[in-house]
Design a protein that fits this description.
By secondary structure, this protein is mostly helical. The protein has a domain of about 50 residues. Helix 2 packs antiparallel against helix 3. The longest helix has 27 residues.
Amino acid sequence: MIHQADRTLKDEWGKIFRELPVEARQALKAALLSLRMDALQRAQIQWERHKGPMALYWKCVGVYAGHLARSIN
């Protein structure tokens, strides 16, 4: 069931991304990769400050941004 939902979402968002102009896709991908790097750095800072919940939050933001960036081709 979960795999089917994942495939459905991937197909829907893939269609949306493919409909964007090439320049828009490139700009969106660059922005998401920048967000990924910033979020992962923030996660590390929060971890060093012993703020586990905030570190987890920023780590998740970074992972999701990376996944979205890789889905844009």
